[in-house]
Amino acid sequence: MNNPELSRLLARLMGLFLLGLIRALTGAQARWQGCPPKAEQRIYFANHQSHADLVLMWAALPSELRSITRPIAAKDYWTKTPFKQWITTAVFNAIYVDRAKTGDQDPLEPLMDALQNGDSIILFPEGTRGNQEEPQAFKSGLYNLATKFPQVVLVPAWINNVQRVMPKGEVVPVPILCSVTFGAPIALGDSEERSAFLVRARQAVMSLRDT
Description:
By secondary structure, this protein is of the alpha/beta class. It is built from 9 helices and 7 strands; from the N terminus they run H-E-E-H-H-E-H-H-E-H-E-H-E-H-E-H. A 7-stranded mixed sheet has the order 1-7-6-2-5-3-4, sandwiched between helices.
């Protein structure tokens, strides 16, 4: 689309439409139990059970945080069609990541670029979707980012019920009440080992299940 103003207008209208649709389907309830919504640079890290996780997390944030927070999107899935790619770039301002490492490419590079630019990000440390009530073991990406960007606030989150809205392998969403619970920030301890930190980060997410 050659007209930048028209492109921005269409993206804004689509964002409003999606926000209304998501809230109608899921309620998109945000529960700030461990910290308030605040315009500071953050890494929100959450469990991952559906492609709809990205959308629900985006919708759960207040508008002033949505504008400065970029979700992580699997490049192979979200660029399959021109429409998906437009939605994730123009509306969600997503960061594409390759789930399969190729050559010497660092899969964290686009995330580090976003953090260096002052953006907040939404990260799913499992790396792939699961289908269990408990998240899979966290991969090392969260630890590496926490090491490189110690000033960024790490906020755990638990996404509830979204796997029933868009089960793995399905394409038609089902109306189900969903919520995102945001917990108290954690920080990487001095000389804390990677494995210990990742276990603690996973436990911080899991602790929010019953709140």
